[in-house]
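Hello forum,

I keep getting stuck at the same step: I have a sequence, I want structure tokens, and every attempt I make locally crashes halfway through. Rather than fight my setup again tonight, could one of you with a working pipeline run this one for me? It's a single chain of 72 residues.
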Amino acid sequence: MKIKLVKIGNSYGVRLPKALLEEYGFKNEVNLTVRQGAFVLTPVVLPRMGWKELLQDEAGKHLIKAEGEWEW
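Reply #2:
Ran it on my machine without issues. Output:
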């Protein structure tokens, strides 16, 4: 895929197509590394990302309280 560089102040950036962003899970931030002369973008994955949803699916929404105090 060939894309153009976009001037942003004294720097340059690239515009990534929406379909590409959605396919690879890119949000507002990405990790940028350089490997063998190539730029590599990877999505930022936060620790415990998706845990709440996973627990709710496994235990049922009525058993998990996301906020506030637990009732014993």
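The helical segments are 18-24, 51-59. If your local run keeps crashing, start a new thread with the error log.
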